[in-house]
């Protein structure tokens, strides 16, 4: 039995070492990814549900490794967070997205809003207020065209502190969205006091509409809650016409998902902007 026990221990040990090695490898590669210009920002359309009008985009990070090809964010964002690299990378995404939005505005396009994801680590380990202020000044993007997305889970971890930081950010004139809403067990007491403009209903509630009646009830409740708090509500992960119709009927304000468009590079997003301008 002793022998067997050791064997099992060694088996897990090897697997852990492999995972740890992969993470170490990705971490060291990620350190150089910015300088090697392997990081790219893609843009996913966001629409007004009432009339399917294009209103903006969410900036989503992509990593094209020179040997290993496209590495999905789910594989490297947590590594970037654990290592602190997300501070530099997140600032780069913010700057790139704001510069891009300013370019589209200057070209005369009707572009309302660029949404950028903020990691909790950026809020904890850097002066995010100073960074956002500086990036807005450097790029010349009017603050009202920038929206920052922060996950519900992160906000609720340190709700009191985040209420203050979010208030400071919002005072700059940017808007704030709670990302992945419905998964983070918000206290309703805090939700009322949070300085935010928008709830983004998590994709997990949208994806089984109309098969899952519980998810439909939750979605309906989130929309009602958001509207009672005078917030805009956006549904994420809409993949079918049926889902879009259901959400529209419930009065959900905005939509994002493969049904409307996948995240695309800046050039392709510009085509969408031009098409949406046609009468
Ligand atoms: P998220 O912020 O919830 O972003 C939405 C994710 O859902 C994106 O995945 C998007 O491609 C995907 N998505 C959108 N519509 C659909 C749909 O209809 N069906 C399905 N199946 N998926 C859909 P992506 O780009 O792989 O990003 C994954 C996560 O990585 C993001 O989730 C976000 O948490 C993180 N992430 C991405 N870029 C950044 C960034 O610049 N900074 C930070 N801190 N996190 C980022
Ligand atoms: Ca997001
Ligand atoms: Ca989300
Ligand atoms: Ca479900």
TrEMBL record:
Stated name of the protein: EAL domain-containing protein
Domain EAL: 23-277
Organism annotation: Methylomonas rivi
Keyword entries, A-Z: Coiled coil
């Amino acid at each position: 039995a002793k022998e067997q026990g050791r064997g099992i221990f060694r088996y897990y040990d090897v697997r852990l070492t492999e995972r740890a090695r992969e993470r170490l490898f990705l971490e060291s590669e990620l350190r150089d990814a910015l300088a090697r210009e392997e990081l790219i920002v893609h843009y996913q359309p966001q629409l007004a549900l009432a009339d399917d009008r294009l209103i903006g985009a969410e900036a989503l990070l992509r990593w094209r490794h020179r040997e290993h090809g496209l590495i999905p964010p789910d594989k490297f964002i947590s590594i970037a967070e654990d290592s602190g690299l997300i501070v530099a990378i997140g600032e780069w995404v913010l700057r790139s997205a704001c510069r891009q939005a300013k370019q589209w505005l200057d070209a005369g396009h009707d572009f309302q809003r660029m949404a950028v994801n903020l990691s909790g680590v950026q809020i904890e380990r850097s002066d995010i207020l100073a960074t956002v202020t500086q990036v807005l000044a450097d790029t010349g993007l009017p603050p009202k065209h920038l929206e920052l997305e922060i996950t519900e889970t992160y906000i609720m971890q340190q709700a009191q502190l985040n209420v203050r930081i979010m208030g400071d950010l919002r005072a700059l004139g940017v808007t704030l969205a709670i990302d992945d809403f419905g998964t983070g067990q918000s206290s309703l007491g805090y939700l009322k006091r949070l300085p935010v403009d928008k709830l983004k209903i998590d994709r997990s509630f949208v994806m089984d509409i109309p098969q899952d009646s519980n998810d439909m009830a939750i979605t309906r409740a989130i929309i009602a809650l958001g509207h009672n708090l005078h917030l805009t509500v956006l549904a994420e992960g809409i993949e079918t016409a049926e889902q879009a119709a259901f959400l529209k009927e419930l009065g959900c304000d905005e939509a994002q998902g493969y049904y409307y468009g996948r995240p695309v590079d800046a050039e392709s997003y510009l085509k969408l902007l031009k098409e949406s301008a046609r009468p």
